[in-house]
Specification:
Number of strands of chain C: 0
CATH topology of chain C: MetI-like fold
Order of helices and strands of chain C: HHHHHHHHHH
CATH superfamily of one domain in chain B: MetI-like
Number of helices of chain C: 10
Strand content of chain B: under 5%
Structural class of chain C: mainly alpha
Number of strands of chain B: 0
Radius of gyration of chain B: 22 Å
Largest interface: B-C, 53 and 49 residues
Distance between the termini of chain B: 59 Å
Radius of gyration of chain C: 22 Å
Chains: A alpha/beta (about 250), B mainly alpha (about 240), C mainly alpha (about 260)
Shape of chain B: flat
Structural class of chain B: mainly alpha
CATH architecture of one domain in chain B: Orthogonal Bundle
Oligomer: heterotrimer
Number of helices of chain B: 10
Order of helices and strands of chain B: HHHHHHHHHH
Chain lengths: ~250, ~240, ~260
């Protein structure tokens, strides 16, 4: 289970997160929606401590962190509980696909090289890249890179995988392959928090939808509730602007 | 021997009159080098037969050898060559009539030309090809496009590298002492050895060069700011 | 001036000059080792923003880049013993080569520190974030992710610094070191065939430069192999995707290069 309590974050004088409370049950897929600048990406990055929250508490699994007194050690321990899939993929540019996945297993999980390779190859097979193990990121398409990114996150077997707009840097024709992989992982019961603009994907895959605007959670609930019968005017406005794509193809 | 701080000031004052010589050598080599460099760069970019290859060989040779060897080769080689030609064609010209500083001018210009050709070439190549096509599309000829569109843009990207070249030539001008030209460095040597205070004299010379270099860097920053106005967008 | 030009002397001088090649290369290698050490020492305070030391680093770099190496050479040769004497250390008997290597080392360090700094900052911020997200510590992220990529960016500039250093060693003769240039002058004076001696000298420098350049190019290609396209496989997206990347890498290198673009002695 993941619990965020009263998360605050400011950039200079601008308050980006104004006290966020969020609970994610084990095995749940939570999709965070919201207009740009609503603070959804910042929230996600706070969970992994890539942004340092000004105040609040983060609980992942059995690890509890009070953001007021978080030292290097605590942050490091927290990070090991989660994994992240980035908008810009952020694959290690000097390492091949399989090396990218192995990296965390070798350095953080201290696996042997053989074991790390075996598991990495397996995971890449799973995301459909079994034939591109030795390709460098610069030799892969955006969709392929992002699938390596997903395998890299999976390899760590974290409590939760955080997806930061995983398809928004992709060419439209590559979005499908990445969403398909995420959907399959979701079906395996892995806990995920996903920031995305793909409404159709949210409707299909999410158990829980959170709508954020102006640094607060405006509304949350099941996909049916939030997407079909939004209670708040702001949610309605937002959904109207984003034309849903009901037949996102898989 | 103790360090004599007041002598640094004395040496400083004695070296000051040599500054113009250093600056003249730098200026001549930079200006002549720019012209040589531009021609060499164009010959290479446009792959002019023979000239293009010659320019490449020139740049490779100069960049692959120390500036000192260029000076020594010119100083010892040019008179031999000129006197031989002169005798052949009856010019009545004697190499002895070339002033010492002339060797520095010629040699340093050749050095600067090679380095600057690389700077100019990379500047020209940095300009987007679309700019040239746009210039053609409004009906410009190649020379017009080069002069009005490409050169100004290339120049503004090249400013930092050009500034480095100028500083390189300023520092390189210290080699002029080998052909008995009294620049800042040679003057420092004279002041040092006549007073037997080497350290102090060279501190003074170093401070002068440091100041001149900082001045060039400051000037570059100002020029860069002015030239890059178009890059910044927004209202100036 | 001198004896009449005789082509055969150029060839006759080669072996004699090559005898001193070892000394020239020793100066290059020694200075490079000292320079890499100094470069890191100087780059660190600026990368980590250490208050007073940062200022010191800036002055150090500014001085060594702002004064001619010839002046630095004299400054250290005459000045270092006097300064150390104040501290009670006597190095007036140290061999000239020591001063030459110290000076070139400190000089190279100034240029390398800039390169090190630029290359490290050139590595995309996302790479560090990804390393943290995978669970690495700061040190692991630096040594496994940032450093190897920075190294690849640094090689072209490093190569420039090495070649500049090689050419700068020609000035060591002013302190009486019998390296390539000093030897060429002696041979010229001895035989009065100056032009031939210097042609011979220039050719040797040229060949060493070209060989060094080629070697460093190979190193660069090896370190940057992850940025190279493969001809096999890949779809139509590749073209769209890679072009901006490839360009941005060149840009990085060009940016890092700005440090030492000028003419070297």
């Amino acid at each position: 289970m993941i619990k965020l309590k009263n998360i605050h974050k400011s950039f200079g004088r601008q308050q980006v997160l104004k006290g966020i409370d969020l609970t994610v049950q084990k095995g749940e897929v939570v999709v965070i929606l919201g207009p740009s600048g609503s603070g959804k990406t910042t929230l996600l990055r706070c969970v992994n401590y890539l942004e340092k929250p000004g105040d609040g508490e983060i609980l992942i699994g059995d690890y509890h962190l009070n953001c007021r007194h978080a030292g290097k050690k605590e942050i490091h321990a927290l990070r090991q509980k989660s994994a992240m899939v980035f908008q810009q993929y952020n694959l290690f540019r000097h390492k091949t696909a399989v090396e990218n996945v192995m990296e965390g297993l070798l350095v953080v999980k201290k696996l042997s090289k053989e074991e790390a390779y075996r598991r990495s190859a397996e995971l890449l097979e799973k995301v459909g890249l079994g034939s591109r193990l030795d390709a460098y990121p610069s030799q892969l398409s955006g969709g392929q890179q992002q699938r390596v990114g997903i395998a890299r996150a999976l390899a760590l077997e974290p409590e939760v995988i955080l997806f930061d707009e995983p398809t928004s840097a992709l060419d439209p024709e590559l979005v499908g392959e990445v969403l398909e992989v995420i959907r399959r992982i979701a079906a395996e019961g892995i806990t995920m928090i996903v920031v995305t603009h793909e409404i159709g994907f949210a409707r299909d895959v999410a158990n829980h939808i959170v709508f954020m605007d102006g640094g607060v959670i405006v509304e949350e609930g099941s996909p049916a509730e939030v997407l079909s019968r939004p209670k708040e005017e702001r949610t309605r406005q937002f959904l109207k602007r984003i034309t849903p794509e009901p037949n996102y193809s898989i | 021997m103790k360090i004599d701080l007041t002598f640094i000031w004395t040496a400083f004052l004695q070296i000051l009159p040599a500054i113009p010589t250093t600056l003249v050598i730098t200026l001549v080599s930079v200006l002549a080098g720019f012209v040589i460099g531009l021609l060499a760069a164009l010959a290479r970019i446009y792959k002019v037969p023979v000239l293009g290859q010659a320019a490449s060989a020139y740049v490779t040779f100069i960049r692959g050898t120390p500036m000192l060897t260029h000076l020594l080769l010119i100083y010892f080689g040019l008179p031999v060559l000129l006197d031989a030609l002169s005798a052949q064609f009856g010019w009545g010209f004697k190499s002895a009539s070339i002033p010492m500083i002339g060797f520095a001018f010629i040699s340093f210009s050749i050095t600067a030309g090679a380095y600057m050709s690389e700077v100019i070439r990379s500047g020209l190549l940095a300009v987007d090809r679309g700019q040239l096509e746009a210039a053609y599309s409004v009906g410009m000829t190649t020379p017009q496009a080069l002069r009005r569109i490409i050169f100004p843009q290339a120049l503004s990207v090249s400013i930092p590298n050009l500034s480095n070249s100028v500083i390189g030539m300023l520092h390189g001008s210290t080699l002029a002492f080998t052909v008995s030209v009294v620049d800042i460095n040679a003057k420092a040597q004279i002041v040092a050895s006549t007073n037997w205070k080497f350290f102090e004299a060279y501190i003074a010379a170093a401070l002068i060069f440091w100041g001149l270099t900082l001045l060039i860097e400051r000037l570059t920053a100002v020029i860069e700011k002015r030239m890059n106005l178009y890059n910044r967008g927004g209202i100036v | 001036m001198g004896a009449p030009f005789d082509l055969s002397f150029i060839f006759r001088f080669f072996p004699k000059l090559l005898d001193t090649l070892g000394l020239t290369l020793l100066i290059v290698a020694g200075s490079l080792a000292a320079g890499i050490f100094a470069g890191f020492l100087v780059a660190l305070p600026r990368m980590y923003n250490v208050p007073v030391l940062k200022r010191f680093s800036q002055v150090y770099v500014s001085f060594f880049r702002g004064t001619p190496i010839l002046i630095q050479l004299f400054l250290f040769y005459y000045g270092l013993p006097e300064i150390l004497k104040l501290a009670g250390i006597d190095i007036s008997k140290a061999p000239v080569l020591f001063f030459v290597i110290i000076t070139y080392g400190l000089n190279t360090g100034a240029f390398l520190s800039e390169t090190i700094r630029a290359s490290v900052t050139a590595v995309n911020r996302g790479q560090i974030e990804a390393a943290y997200a995978v669970g690495m510590t700061g040190y692991q992220a630096f040594s496994r992710i940032v450093w190897p990529q920075a190294l690849a960016v640094a090689v072209p500039v490093f190569s420039n610094v090495v070649l500049a250093l090689l050419k700068d060693t020609s000035l060591a003769f002013t302190l009486g070191v019998m390296e390539l240039t000093g030897k060429a002058q002696t041979l010229g004076a001895l035989t009065q065939h100056f032009v031939e001696a210097y042609i011979s000298l220039a050719l040797i420098y040229l060949v060493i430069s070209l060989v060094l350049e080629r070697l460093l190019k190979l190193a660069e290609r090896r370190l940057l192999r992850h940025e190279q396209p493969v001809s096999t496989g890949g779809g139509r997206f590749r073209l769209w995707f890679r072009l901006p990347r490839a360009r941005s890498y060149r840009q990085l290198i060009a940016d890092a290069n700005a440090g030492k673009g000028g003419a070297e002695l």
